[in-house]
Amino acid sequence: MKTALKASLLVLGLCLVPAAFAATPESAPATALDGGLLASMKAGSAGKDFQARYDALAPVVRQAYNLPEVTKNSVGFLWSTLPAAQQQELSQLFEQFTISSYVAEFNAYSGQSFKVLPDETALGAKEIVKTQLVPGDGSEPVELDYVMENGANGWQITDVLLNGTISQVAVHASDFASMVTSGDASRLITALKGKIAALQNLPAAQ
After folding, report:
1. What are the tens digits of pLDDT across the range 83-140?
2. What residues contact residue 110 under an 8 Å CB cut-off, 6+ apart?
3. Is 61 exposed, middle or buried (0-12, 13-18, 19+ CB in 10 A)?
4. In sequence order, which residues have a C-beta less than 8 Å from that of residue 14 and are 6 or more positions away?
């Protein structure tokens, strides 16, 4: 009887686990991005050059992120004062900067893995999806939390919280503030072009 009861409880438990830890619509972009970054690291270690890894990761980032919203929030409150031509150029450059930053940073594989944690946090209409980058050497994981918003293209990332607290958008807004004045972002445009060129000229991973 005890054996049968234990077996029944085990079956019940196995039935409940997938429901409790099932992927959610809001976590899907984070999972896709993590998979793209892992593939990019492995490609770097396999000798793929920057452009090849950029081309492979670009569609993943475009799908996972609401890049127009991230760009606008990163530029800050003066965004609405900028001429349409500068807004368009900034959107293109910020996309290139975001993808290039990922390709440059996640450039080699040494056993790392990503984990999407089940405990999401609601923030008004937004959801915070918590993930970890787990090093291959057994050291402490790095927490990367994604702020997700549900828009015209479904759930997408609108911010990343490093260690659960440091807003990437807030850091960018602080860095960019001195390069934007009412009606003019030419200094920021020049700076982004320089940052992209520097990232893309990094040596290949050894």
Report:
1. 999 999 999 999 999 999 999 999 999 999 999 998 888 888 999 999 999 999 989 9
2. 45, 135, 136, 137
3. buried
4. none
Amino acid at 41: M
HEC states along 104-144?
Answer: HHCCCCCCCEEEECCCCEEECCEEEEEEEEECCCCCCCEEE
- The string of pLDDT tens digits covering residues 39-51 is 999 999 999 999 9
Q: State the fold for domain 27-200.
A: Nuclear Transport Factor 2; Chain: A, (3.10.450)
On whether the CB atoms of residues 28 and 116 are closer than 8 A, the answer is no
Residue 77, classed as helix, strand or coil, is helix
* pTM, full prediction: 0.85
pLDDT in tens, 178-190: 999 999 999 999 9
The packing angle between helices 84-105 and 186-200, to 10°, is 20
**Amino acid sitting at position 29:** P
